[in-house]
Amino acid sequence: MRTLRLLTVGTLLHAKQISRSPFEVAIALVVPVVQATLAVYLFRSGGEQHRLLEAAVGAGVMGVWSSVLFGSGGAIQNQRWQGTLEMIMLAPRRPALVILPITIATGVTGTYALLATLVWGRVLYGIRLDFAHPVAFVVAAVVCVIGLGMFGLLLASTFVLMRNANALANTLEYPVWLISGMLVPITVLPAWTTPIAAILPTTWGARALREATSGGPVWPSILLCLGISLVCLVIGALTLTHVERRARAAATLALA
Amino acid sequence: MKTLRLMTVGGTIAYRALFNWTTPGMFVGTLLVGPLFQLLFFAYLGRQLQVADDRFYIVGNAVLTASLACVFGGTMAVANERRFGTLGHVLLSPRSRTAIFWGRVLPYAGNGLLIAVVTLSAGALLLGLRIPVPALPGLLVAMAAGSLACGFFGLTLGALGLRFRDVWVVSNVSVALLLLLTGVNVPASGLPGWMVTVGQWLPITHAAEAARQIAAGAGFAAAAPALGRELLVGALYAAAAVVLLKVFEVESRRKASLDTL
């Protein structure tokens, strides 16, 4: 119960902190809306008007991934720049438990993108929010955010080992959008991408949301997203513990 | 000759000092691999939706990829001087502001051209697009024109950095808007009229059109009007950047806010 409280309060704290940044909020709202607009016109040009809601949801999930990728990838570096890394590492809890709320918070603020694209589609393009499974959509969205937050912990713990983590983050945005089938169906991609897609929680999260939108077996995708995310959480926690011990021993915790 | 030296040497030194992606790993990851996946993303999306053929997406997105280095580079040329506290020193120089800042754009435009060439080559190889050899010089000119226009567009955004604190929001949104409004990913016939009109006044739009004509074998002469329009758009942004830099410099001196972040 104390752990759950720590995660909840920590997530709320960091979500509030991220939401205070005009840059983060502007990017989370405006860029996904531009991408949703692009997707709407592309789908219309391709004669796929009946899939506009799917396009809006896909663009929103792309925004969630961008938020997690850049937010979680730079989570530890950001704490370092703020001068708060030592303080949170001094907390008498496991390192993963104090960093995980930050990465989940990046997923939570990523939902601004999902909400923005849905509202934008409804208001401007009259896209009816007729979800095939409305309850499952909400569950899928929550699982997707928490799952990507767990995946974010893995990103945070591995990116901190690299000096050029920003380059990796910039590199990973489009490949994950593409391979996870957020807008482009996986079936049109080369066959060698299928195994990579299968181990990414983003693939199953995006698939669950798409199936909840247009119909399909939502729950297996939700469970797979959660399962893969838990594996990422375990690997991320182990890596983070190792990195933290190494940084303490070498007295480099606060050094970039 | 002295002005030319100021533009090239000054521009090169500023590029090395201010461009944040100077390590090879960051350069390759951010400026070569990322744009290639952007091209692949839209090419596969276009294939699936059957909006246009591969040439449309590969050539258009290759020209567009120059915008990443040019828009952010042009912004950094001004905004990072301010961030690192060296803008005052630059403005104390007795040389022409216009030459100094236009010179800043040149390395970024060259960088954008390199990215466009690499992205086009890799995209064409991966997706099996055949480009006729006689079309290559024309394509290079079209991509260079797009990169230069985009660099001046970035410099105009950078000038806004003297007035607004968070110019990076403007740069990020601008790069996203270029994806939508330049007609690189949605044919002009599929966009509302006002978006097409706005796109006509943005860099890349005409360069992408020219590059597509050249890649289709229409010849350089057929693409010349579009190239002329691209260069005109670039010249307009170059002039706008100079005016804005002058206006905001005067205002910053008056309000003593030159180095305020």
TrEMBL record, chain A:
Topological type in the membrane: Multi-pass membrane protein
InterPro entries (UniProt xref): ABC2_TM, ABC_2_transport, Nod_factor_ABC_transporter
Pfam assignment, any one: ABC2_membrane
Keyword Transmembrane among record annotations: yes
Keywords: Antibiotic resistance, Membrane, Transmembrane, Transmembrane helix
Record field: transmembrane: 21-43, 55-76, 97-123, 135-162, 174-198, 218-240
Broad class of the protein's primary localization: membrane
Subcellular location: Membrane
Signal peptide extent: none
Top-rank taxon: Bacteria
Every ABC-2 type transporter transmembrane domain range: 16-211
PANTHER family: ABC-TYPE MULTIDRUG TRANSPORT SYSTEM, PERMEASE COMPONENT, NODULATION PROTEIN J
Name of the protein in question: ABC-2 type transporter transmembrane domain-containing protein
Source species: Paractinoplanes deccanensis
